[in-house]
Amino acid sequence: MSEKPRKFKGGVHPNDSKALSAHKAIQTAPLYDTYKVIMHQNIGAPPELLVKKGDAVKKGSLLCKASGFVSVPLHAPTSGTVKLIDKVPGPTGVSVPCIVIEADGEDEWGSPFEPMADWRQTDPAELKQRVWDAGVVGMGGAGFPAHVKLSPPEDKPVDKLILNGAECEPYLTADHRLMLEQAEEVVLGAAILARILGLEGAVIGVESNKPDAIQALEKVAGEYNVEVASLPVNYPQGAEKQLIYAITGREVPVGKLPSDVGCVVQNVASAVAVAEAVVKGIPSIERITTVTGKPLNDPGNWKLRIGTPIDEVLKLAGGIKEQPAKLLLGGPMMGIAQSSLDVTVMKNTSGVLLIAKDEVSLYTSEPCIRCGRCVDCCPMQILPATISQAVENNRFDWAERLNVMACIECGSCSYSCPSHRPLNQQFKRAKVEIRAGLRK
Amino acid sequence: MSEETPDIRMPDPSKLMVSNSPHMRDKPTIDKIMLTVVAAMLPACIAAVLFFGLAALKVLVISTVSCILAEEGWNKLMKRPSTWRDGSAILSGILLGMNLNAGSPWWICVLGGLLAMILGKQLYGGLGYNPFNPVLVARVGLLIGFPGIMTTWHKPELGRMVIDGVTAATPLGLAPGETVLQDMILGNVGGCLGETSALALLIGGGILIWKKLIKWEVPLAFIGTVFVITGMMHLVNPEQYHSPFVHILSGGLLLGAFFMATDMVTSPMTHKGAWIFGLGCGLITSLIRLWGSYPEGVSFAILFMNALVPLIDRGTVRKPFGYVAPAKGEA
């Protein structure tokens, strides 16, 4: 990096607890009897179902096709039979349609894509089509279709490709291990993405608490004209807007997208999925997930097929020593708490985290003492305490004027509030109310 | 993996809690913040007892107990849950004691506690809702009601543990030139308990800034403004006006700037607001001290600026990250 990364204003420094799994090499999960593939795994339109009960499927064959531009196809994680198409509890608690596949144990590939070994000569449009066909989405957590980000509007030229390897969420180490163990694939993915965008190179942003990953990437980065930027350790460093600022100094305008400042951001795991789709012809049917938490016997990082039941995942980690207080999909700052073990691994499941009883404090929300801690740590530089007052008074117009829509829901304000006020929750509600008002 | 492995323990889903993110919380809670501020007050409390003797300790204890009882009494009366454990009443009590002089009779402390906790805090809705610093409401109330008692200062005497003492003047009441800076720094001067030792107050203030419990802009702007204005007047006429160092080290300026003006509830929330607030406090303090009829002006200045906090907050709403000014013609 020619320039030193800039530190964004605000942020918090939660205890990262990454030591539980950071030194554990990625292991591949065994083949299971049943996979429950949730149909809608991307932001945007749900894909269109192509199979029916009783159909035989091969590994990698299409289960669903994209239903529009902001939609991605879905592939079978293994070979077998479609046992059931039913509704199951999704990660947010709402029931979602799901394809249950009974594995035949053969794990036989269907008609996979042609590998494109000569990707350097392949037409960028063809590469982009491959990314779409392979069903690659943002694997950092958002699940935004990768090909959409690779199609910036013509009036907004992109000059910077950034790979997000910050992994600022406490506990999670999946991206860390991926960058360490598959540095070449990460860099290769970056180069392919750069070619699609018509760029010469890319920058990978990694928090400086992963020196081994940075070193591994730097060893191979030069070959593909990729740079590695060591970023300050500061949650939420991996948030898109904060990451862009750290690397380019550009501020994404409120309500706008990275392409408005000429940037495209892709997660490092998505880059690897792109590399595999292009070079090996493998669709997005697996991901690396950190399975961790103090209650687990053997935390670690596993390569899991999409659709792997969470109870199997917990068994991989040796089961529990003690009953956990919470089960989360994702990290402790932005992850979603689950009330059952019926959920399954999705393309954006970066972590399966068990929170011990002594790690949660049951608290009641107390009055705001105006200490200003939330104001100091807000990475979007809005005024959480004041907006919270507006929400409590049902003054959503006021909340909107105070820029609640700029909130990225990183949870830093709630994390730092000594009065345990539900700030993050209030802002989510305000955004829903304001959007509903706009629709009227 | 078809065989069951029964010895692996799995979570009981019925015992899983579901709540909104984030699922982690930083350690500080209201009571820890309040008690840290109390700890930062300790050097000044110790200095007070060293210089004014057991009489100072008596005032501190009665004030603190009064505040706790006043708060709890009100809660009982209003059938509200007990709140003294959040530490704010304890802190107010100690601050109240620091705002009284060592010779204060017990009933002044009790009355001060009632004024602070009920008139200054609970009538507005309790912790977090009071617009004025409760201790200053009490102090000014007492100052107006009992000016004689409130301005009779004890003579400091290092290490002599007395209950009663001899009266002495506060340095600001003396003519320029009669003051000894060294005494003021250490604390060998008359005044309220919390006015005596500049050194002890600076140590406490340093702790608060280091622990990020106060905005450093407030004391800096406050003290800096007083220094500049009184310094200019001293240059103009050293016969009539005290040196700026006397102004800074005497009276309640350090106590006010570090412990009263910085009260979270009653000061602005942004750093820009903190500058304005501190500047205003310094300006009003200087005006009262130089040309007003009271020798001291810190309490009035802070109370006045407290009243302006909602306006300051409104005027200092910051631009969010990535803010773009709306184009001309747009609403």
TrEMBL record, chain A:
Cofactor: [4Fe-4S] cluster
Binding positions for [4Fe-4S] cluster 1 per the UniProt entry: 368, 371, 374, 417
Compartments (UniProt record): Cell membrane
Keywords of the record: 4Fe-4S, Cell membrane, Electron transport, Iron, Iron-sulfur, Membrane, Metal-binding, Repeat, Translocase, Transport
SUPFAM superfamilies in the record: alpha-helical ferredoxin, Nqo1 FMN-binding domain-like
Cofactor-binding details, from the entry: Binds 2 [4Fe-4S] clusters per subunit.
InterPro entries listed in its UniProt record: 4Fe4S_Fe-S-bd (IPR017896), 4Fe4S_Fe_S_CS (IPR017900), Ion_transpt_RnfC/RsxC (IPR010208), Nuo51_FMN-bd (IPR011538), Nuo51_FMN-bd_sf (IPR037225), RnfC_N (IPR026902), Soluble_ligand-bd (IPR019554)
Protein name: Ion-translocating oxidoreductase complex subunit C
Organism whose genome encodes this protein: Pontiella agarivorans
Lineage, highest ranks first: Bacteria, Pseudomonadati, Kiritimatiellota, Kiritimatiellia, Kiritimatiellales
Gene that encodes it: rsxC
Automatic annotation (TrEMBL), chain B:
A Pfam match: NQR2_RnfD_RnfE
Top enzyme class: translocase
Membrane topology: Multi-pass membrane protein
Principal location listed in the UniProt entry: membrane
Residue runs in coiled coils: none
FMN phosphoryl threonine carried by residues: 170
Keyword Oxidoreductase attributed: no
InterPro entries: NqrB/RnfD, RnfD_bac
Cofactor field: FMN
Keywords: Cell membrane, Electron transport, Flavoprotein, FMN, Membrane, Phosphoprotein, Translocase, Transmembrane, Transmembrane helix, Transport
Residues spanning the membrane: 33-56, 105-124, 136-154, 185-209, 216-235, 241-261, 273-291
The keyword Calcium is annotated on this UniProt entry: no
Location of this chain's protein in the cell: Cell membrane
Enzyme Commission code(s) on record: 7.-.-.-
Subunit structure: The complex is composed of six subunits: RnfA, RnfB, RnfC, RnfD, RnfE and RnfG.
Known function: Part of a membrane-bound complex that couples electron transfer with translocation of ions across the membrane.
Family membership noted in the UniProt record: Belongs to the NqrB/RnfD family.
HAMAP family from the UniProt entry: RsxD_RnfD
Protein name per Swiss-Prot or TrEMBL: Ion-translocating oxidoreductase complex subunit D
Organism (species): Pontiella agarivorans
UniProt gene name: rnfD
